[in-house]
Amino acid sequence: MSGPRVNSFFLGNSSGVNFSIILSPRDAETGKLQLANCSGSKRAGDWNLDVTPGVNTSKVTISLSRTLELCLPNATECCPSPLCMVETLQVLACRGSVMLAQLLIQAEIFANSSFAGNVSENATIIPNQAFKPLGSCPCNLTAGACDVRCCCDLECTPDLQQLFSGSCFTGVFGGDVNPPYDQLCSSQSMEYTPEWFPFLCVQSSLDNTPFLGYFYHGSTSTPKVPSFKIPLQTSPGKPFTGYREGDPIITEEDEYFTVPQQSMAGQCVGNAPVAYLHNFDVKCPTNLESYKEGLPHDVRINSGTADFIQQNVVYRAIKDRGKFIAESENLAAEVLCQNVTFAEHYKFVWKDKNIEQVNVTVFLGSLCDGEILTQRFTVEFLSLNNTNGEELFENPGYQVGKPVKAANLNASDPLGSLNVLQPAGRGLCASATDRPVLFGVDSYSGCILEVDINEDCSLLRGNVTEKLNALIQATHIGKRGNSSYSDLNDWVEIIRLDPFSSNVSTGGLKGICPDIPANLNIRIIFAKVGAVQGIPQQQILAVQISYSTVLWQFQCGLGCRNTLSFLPITASVQFIEVPAQPPLPVTRYQKIYAEFDCNKNEVCWPQLLYPLTRFYTGEPYSQCLAKGLFLAFLVLLATITSNPWFSKLWNR
Questions:
Q1: Residue limits of the Tectonic-1-3 N-terminal domain (predicted)?
Q2: Euclidean distance between the first and final Cα of the chain, in Å?
Q3: Residue 390: Cβ within 10 Å count
């Protein structure tokens, strides 16, 4: 240690542990440490020992109680020389007469000094780092004292360096400010040296090193902060042509209109652009310290025709703060509070490619320090032609991410729902909720049902079936996103395949139930039947609902003390795209031709004589022709010699 105070920690339970400090435990003759004992106290010489107990960690503080000022004439209790104190301390932790831990401290403390001479006018010359390192020993952080593990510190005596000689700092921080680089011919630091290294290496001295900037002068450039300003594809004589689905909404200042949204990682991004015809509903947690105001509500928005419209803003006060305050710490009597935005709801009224109106509802409330606020931001696009609150999209097809429209046409109220499970908390079905099926989004979710070992199998099948059937409160699914309840042709009937139930008997065994319909499978077949203004129009053709059965068996835990087991039930949604028109049947000619199609068969008979044709460019045509004729001659000769009459003619 090089200062008047040092801290350490004792790990473990300090109950009943006695801490003591011993001064100069090293023997003066042999130089060895004296045998430590547990009979010391918390004070030795000018040193004091303080212990701050904790749960599993105790803080041990060793402090010096004397002054460190240099002695003036006829002064006492001061430092006679700049090196004021060199002592060895030993801290012991004992429980009774048993030593639990010990700490050896080498104290070398210099006296406090103040400059009392004349100030020199010579300025300190800082060397150019391109030619000489600015600091030859970067780990030398303390002036006039030895820094632990800094072996290049000239203020460390050999005795002190022996304490940490095996754990010195390495690299540039440890004093190696001019290391050999991998491209140097004499460098042997490369683990895998390429074959071309001896021919393309750098032959140079260590003074000419890239670490000093000979190869790179260290010029820096001011980073450019990216902004959301974009150049509009317009000119003064050509107006803005309007928005298309997915285009970012532009403000009067040619910037993106932003509302906080969730990123792919699940975090909230405060400056996320709003996309045209894309609805969202997000929740962002924040507190008073990190709260930031969003885009001002007086910003005018480009309607799509180079005109600008003003937002219609309505401010309201939050009545129930409990729906937004997710967590509240113990608040003091006097705490800082601020009026902030709890929620913002945007409604864009659109027609064709233009925005006709923007209505904003802002909910304000008081947020205090120590509270966590869950802000809510919603954006909804409503068609100008909507009636009775029902949105009629000009694109009649479904859009990816929109809820699938369901109806119960057999009831007086035709409004229906098609949902999947949404687990919450521990994942039990008792606390699970549901969420709508989104078009084009395959999903797989479920929950866990607690089942008793004495559960009746018939009752269990009924409970599981009732739980899954509650997700489908509909008899028909809308073909399009704007299907009308009054037109039966706009709907397709749901095909239901009831779960298979066998009469297999368990023989009175408990904890075993076969044919449990635990898996709900929803298959939706759709096709692209056209396009509206370049946007594909997708339409649902059929919907099938089926069940998959499982064998439930009671799982015995440790000692089988628990009489409850778990049965996972799931709901999956699969979207299957098919061609809008069935493909034409394959003709007989196409079937025969497929046998000779070189792209569909491993053996290609039409290309048997391909090297003899003009299409083959691997060799000159004359050589290919000569080789082909020679090969044909050999085949003809083999055919002739293998004939019986040739042998008879040869014998004559």
A1: 113-221
A2: 118
A3: 10
H/E element holding 325? strand 325-328
Q: Which residues of 348-363 are buried (b: 16+ CB within 10 A; e: fewer)?
A: bbbeebbbebbeeebb
Q: Which two tokens stand for residue 276?
A: 């045209």
Question: 90: which residues sit within 8 A by CB, 6+ positions away?
Answer: 21, 22, 25, 33, 36, 102, 103, 104, 105
Contact call for residues 19 and 60 (beta carbons, < 8 A): yes
Containing 621, the helix (H) or strand (E) segment is helix 621-641
The answer to whether the CB of 525 falls within 8 A of the CB of 574 is no
For the record, the structure tokens of 259 come out as 């509302």
Q: How many residues does the chain have?
A: 652
Measured over the CA atoms of residue 595, residue 596, residue 601 and residue 602, the dihedral's sign is positive
Model confidence pLDDT, tens digit, residues 540-588: 999 999 999 988 888 775 556 667 788 899 999 999 998 877 777 777 7
Number of C-alpha atoms within 13 angstroms, CB side, residue 330? 0
CA distance 552 to 564: 13
The greatest distance separating any two alpha carbons of the chain, rounded to the nearest whole angstrom, comes to 146
3-state secondary structure 284-327: EEEECCCCCCCCCCCCCEECCCCCEECCEEEEEECCCHHHCEEE
Which distant-in-sequence residues (6+ apart) come within 8 Å of 520 by Cβ?
Answer: 468, 471, 545, 546, 547, 569, 570, 571, 572
The pTM of this model reads 0.41
CA distance 139 to 301: 57
Beta carbons of 360 and 311 less than 8 angstroms apart: yes
590 half-sphere exposure, CB direction, 13 A CA radius: 4
d(CA 572, CA 51): 61
